[in-house]
Specification:
The chain is of the alpha+beta class. The protein folds into three domains: 6-148, Beta-Lactamase (2-Layer Sandwich); 207-292, Signal transduction histidine kinase, dimerisation/phosphotransfer (DHp) domain (Helix Hairpins, Orthogonal Bundle), CATH 1.10.287; 301-447, Histidine kinase-like ATPase, C-terminal domain (Heat Shock Protein 90, 2-Layer Sandwich), CATH 3.30.565. It contains eight helices and twelve strands. It has helices at 6-58, 141-176, 182-189, 207-255, 262-292, 305-320, 341-358, 415-425, and strands spanning 83-87, 93-96, 112-117, 120-129, 132-139, 301-304, 326-330, 336-339, 364-372, 375-382, 429-435, 440-447. A hairpin with a 2-residue loop joins strand 3 (112-117) and strand 4. Helix 5 packs parallel to helix 8 (415-425). It is rod-shaped, with a radius of gyration of 48 Å.
Length: 450
């Protein structure tokens, strides 16, 4: 569906309303004009009849007997273009226009009527003046021509008027929203790293200014809520680190006690594993809180990623040694770029451990890396079950894991979100490019020079 700008919509709506108004005016006006002209013609026919009656009464040389036929020379000049039938007291025909028969044009009981005669339309009126009965008819062609010209003029004027109104409406809309134009660009500048940005206030005190003021107040409330939430997350994560560290140290000391029974030692080991998971979760939450607050600091260095990836491959081989998982890697000799090596090492650790988690025993993990057109790209693929279509973007959200994840696969649903956050801080990206019955592939991309 095509989306038009507000200016175009305003112009179209204005032109549409004008067209509708013209159509309604035409529907109302044309019959009104026609019937007004018809009434005027009826009055003219009455005046013509009155003139003929007056001549019959007063014209010198008029026939004395109302029963004698009337010569054409007694017909006034103004009536010679009319249809005329004049009858005497007993209904005898005294005069008929050339081509007319003695029959009445319309029934005697009708004062005025429209008829068709010889392929043309006429308006005929019946008038009485003792001892005469007169029928006078006038051609309706001029009225029909007038109606046709009005319709033709309306059809010509409507599109021209619509185009003119569209242009005027477009200009008026552009003039009206000129103060709204800076608002979208200003709104786009408001981000996590620029929470202090606000919409510029228009100089006039109208509805747009009021809306801008309301939006700025809403941004202020959202900023305070966001800062409060990120501050709480960071403070909570930071405050939790110390007691969890003390707890872990105490459990490690308890585990080293030689007097501890095997059952108690096993329980302490379980508690230590859960403590390590809790420590990892706290560190991840602290990292995300720093990123949300715009305080994620990167140490930029010129680094060769080949040794970093080799170390990640060594970790993969160690983690998969007992599961018969095959590791395949295709890497160039050098992979130089500017980045924070510590953050990239964490990113690689996250995505490689993620591949190990979801690769079945006897499966394959494949890495391919290279630099093309100023971009470093690493594709990490693993065999295993495909990710459902509805989960392929959701897995990058926090605390979200794909449906059907086995209970024995550890994780909090934060890893991929952290990896993507770290890469986006490098102006890079992490995305899922394929997931089917054969392979699941993630692509990591980074600009070589930032």
């Amino acid at each position: 569906m095509r989306h038009w700008s507000l200016k175009v919509k305003f112009g179209v709506y204005a032109a549409g309303l004008v067209l509708i108004a013209l159509i309604v005016a035409g529907v109302v006006m044309m019959p009104a004009v026609y019937f007004s002209q018809l009434r005027q013609l009826d009055r003219t026919l009455a005046e013509d009849a009155e003139e003929l009656f007056r001549d019959l009464e007063n014209f010198r040389g008029a026939p004395v007997s109302p029963r004698r036929p009337l010569s054409a020379r007694f017909i006034p000049v103004a009536l010679q273009a009319r249809l005329i039938i004049l009858k005497g007291p007993e209904g005898q025909l005294l005069f008929a226009s050339p081509g007319l028969e003695a029959d009445d044009l319309v029934p005697p009981d009708r004062d005025v009527a429209s008829i068709g005669l010889g392929g043309r339309s006429f308006r005929v009126g019946t008038f009485h003046r003792e001892p005469f009965r007169l029928q006078v008819g006038a051609d309706l062609g001029p009225l029909t021509d007038l109606r046709r010209e009005l319709l033709r003029g309306l059809l010509v004027a409507a599109p021209i008027t619509a185009i003119a109104v569209f242009g005027l409406g477009f200009w008026l809309a552009r003039y009206a929203i000129r103060r709204v134009s800076p608002l979208p660009a200003a709104a786009e500048r408001i981000s996590v790293s620029r929470l202090e940005e606000r919409l510029p206030m228009p100089p006039s005190h109208d509805e747009i200014a009021r809306l801008t003021e309301v939006l700025n107040h809403a941004f202020e409330r959202l900023t305070r809520s966001y800062e409060s939430a990120t501050r709480f997350s960071a403070d909570a994560s930071h405050q939790l680190k110390t007691p969890v560290t003390v707890l872990r140290i105490g459990l490690e000391a308890l585990r080293s006690d030689q007097a501890l029974s095997p059952e108690n030692r096993s329980e302490v080991e379980t508690l230590l594993r859960q403590t390590r998971r809790l420590t990892m979760l706290i560190n991840e939450l602290l990292l995300l809180a720093q990123a949300d607050a715009g305080r994620l600091e990167l140490t930029w260095e010129s680094v060769d990623l080949r040794p970093v990836i080799d170390a990640a491959i060594d970790d993969l081989e160690t983690l998969t040694r007992d599961r018969r998982i095959r590791i395949e890697a295709t890497l160039p000799e050098y992979l130089h770029l500017r980045a924070d090596p510590r953050r990239l090492n964490l990113t690689l650790q996250i995505i490689t451990e993620n591949a190990v988690k979801y690769t079945p025993d006897g499966g394959t993990i494949r890495l391919h890396a290279g630099i093309t057109d100023g971009w470093f790209k690493l594709v990490l693929a693993n065999t295993g079950r495909a990710i459902p279509e509805q989960d392929r973007e959701r897995i990058f959200n926090r605390f979200q894991r794909g449906e059907g994840v086995a209970e024995d696969i550890q994780g909090h649903g934060l890893g991929l979100n952290i990896a993507r956050t770290l890469l986006q801080a490098h102006e890079g990206e992490l995305k899922l490019v394929r997931s089917d019955h054969a392979w699941t592939e993630f692509e990591l991309s980074l600009p070589v020079s930032v």
